[in-house]
Amino acid sequence: MTEPLLQIRGLKVHFPIKKGILLDRQVGAVKAVDGVDLDVAKGQTVGLVGESGCGKSTLGRAVLRLTDITEGQVIFDGEDLAQLKGEALRKKRRSMQMVFQDPMASLNPRQSVETILTEPLRAHGIQYDRKNRVQELLKLVGLPGSAANRYPHEFSGGQRQRIGIARAVALEPDLVIADEPVSALDVSIQAQVLNLLEELQERLGLTYLVIAHDLAVVRHVSDQVAVMYLGSIVEQASSDELYAKPLHPYTISLMSAVPVPDPEVEDRRERILLSGDLPSPANPPPGCRFHTRCPYRQEIRCHDERPALRLIEPGHTAACHYAEEILSGAIRPRQADETFAAGPSR
Amino acid sequence: MRPSIPNSDGERMPVEYLDDHPAEATRVRPDRGGETPLLRVDNLSVTFSHHGSKPVFAVDEVSFDVQAGEHVGLVGESGSGKSVTSLAVMGLLPTRGVQVQGSVNFDGRELIGLETSQLRDLRGAEMAMVFQDPMTSLNPVINIERQLTEVLLRHREISKNDARTEAVDLLNKVGIPDPARRVSEYPHQLSGGMRQRVLIAIALACRPRLLIADEPTTALDVTIQAQILELLKELVTTTGTALVMITHDLGIVAGLCDRVHVMYSGRIVESSERRTLFADPRHPYTGGLMASIPRLDQRRGEPLTPIPGSPTDTLPWSQGCAFAPRCPHAQGDCRMETPRLEPLGNRALRCFHPLPPTQTKPRGSS
Ligand SMILES: Nc1ncnc2c1ncn2[C@@H]1O[C@H](COP(=O)(O)OP(=O)(O)OP(=O)(O)O)[C@@H](O)[C@H]1O
Ligand SMILES: Nc1ncnc2c1ncn2[C@@H]1O[C@H](COP(=O)(O)OP(=O)(O)OP(=O)(O)O)[C@@H](O)[C@H]1O
Ligand code: SF4
Ligand SMILES: [Mg+2]
Ligand SMILES: [Mg+2]
Fold first, then answer.
1. Residues of A whose CB is below 8 A from B253
2. Which of A40, A192, B271, B355 has an alpha carbon 20 to 30 Å from B241's alpha carbon atom?
3. Which residues in chain B have Cβ-Cβ distances shorter than 8 Å to A51?
């Protein structure tokens, strides 16, 4: 195993909920990220997957210190970013860059591509040969040299995402956090951007944290996959292992919900339907955060004891009290029909 | 097994169908041979012409049939003309700046040129639609009960009181817990998944014979999407409602539709029964899409083959094949002549140089 480039320990990001005319009374908190441990090894890609509102973006932003950290450590290259301030933080930030979901919203429409690409260099006071560096970057992401003097609106969505990626790698960072890098793109061009990310990783030795809600995308790009639910990580394993042997009931349900473009597969699949909606992170359920929707829920422990992320198999962690029993098949998911029989009458 | 539908709590409840004709409701999907279709769209073209700008040929020579009880998929990328097709079928396009040509025949009746009032009678009663964003298609200032009873009162001989009882019943049937309380709530008080359930209840309130669902789950999380798709599937199957499913997600179509039409730049480029389409795509665009989508059951590192260019790199159909600028198979004739949609065995294909038949099993299925 290579040394982790990024180690996240007990990370919490809580957003205060304020009331009162002056918004001066704190009445609670949105626990967007609530105790996350995660390692990202040098040169690898870790995929962070989960549904809307589970805290993926907040986690990514906290790592870059774009949002305040409530508690915990973010150790990057041996130093705890949570403790850094001012110039020291700014220097560190140079080696961590972000790619955003919506390329249009993240590029300044009034700046030419050349300005967009050289701004980070200027901001960090780096000497460069303007024309050469811009051409180099454009070539790297597969855009024509003539793009330099054009403006974001003159490009298609996929091309704009290439510009966003070129900007992110301009400073030769070690870590790139890509937050939903393809979800705003048309299906036919998602693969272009995914392939570009992989190519750049190889050429520049980048380490990636890829955030996405699409499990198929995450599986495709990641060495390691971490599954997030309501502010914490519920399972982590290598991409192939996670797919072959999902242990956490949420991962199992998520996988069974993803449609596969193959009628043979679709007709054979057994769907595990999750009940209800995602609870609010301002008021998360006690015990296991997933117990309100869990098809494997047991009478004991699930509703009052929060399961820790534990090693279940080599290189495979899960936060479920009953992961071993689920793995061995001793506990089966409740059939929806049984729930009906046992559930409230209608 | 008795038919049952999952509610939002994942519980299954027996379906008592959306109105009270259980005998009729148990009818299964009919044979397709030789029957006249429920919906026949023939040579439909929709052109937007706003002055000052060039006309947009949003939908061009689109033809397809929907048999009673059949599930048909319309797939394509953003801007390929899926929504405009469905709006034209429903007669919901604005009249100004829009030219609609061709024919939309519903159960023997021509809908193009029909009076607005007659269309309105059909909509909701005989054919209904579910949209992507339930927030914009539900009225935000009217409670759920009124939105449901309005449909019932407009299309059915029914008293106000009965309509109210039925509204609660409908919510129950689309799996909304505590329907008696929920019925008096407003759209913003419901989650996205719940709103989509309400929309489905409204659409199916009068048990239409045709339901058009335009990206009904695109705005939803994948676990909620699975709930809604399951609900839709069971409802339309048990009631024998024909379904036109519009989506950009080939995975949804793979599990749901009998027949699939792939659209590109306003035209259908390939039509086929779903198994044939997925096992053996013949249009380079269809094949390209399938090779470029990461699949959940595909090993890490299996390369994706992207389609080059972007959906905006099109050739006008009047000059050749719109896909030619992005097509790895394109030859000279593709840019000089317009390919026609030609039958090929059990499918229809619009391509001069189709992909060879697939010999091996499709990827990922090993
Ligand atoms: N600045 C903020 N102030 C208050 N609450 C916030 C703030 N930013 C995020 N949240 C809340 O924190 C939770 C997690 O949000 P986050 O954006 O991290 O989720 P996500 O997993 O990225 O979701 P999505 O897939 O929709 O992007 C949500 O409930 C969100 O409303
Ligand atoms: N009112 C309008 N005026 C002018 N052009 C329009 C109008 N409505 C749609 N179009 C154009 O018609 C074409 C087809 O649009 P349509 O909405 O049917 O696409 P779609 O396949 O539903 O795409 P999406 O997946 O983004 O919903 C597009 O080029 C669009 O810009
Ligand atoms: S701890 Fe219990 S409720 Fe939580 S995932 Fe495991 S079985 Fe389900
Ligand atoms: Mg996000
Ligand atoms: Mg549309």
1. 261
2. B271
3. 221-223
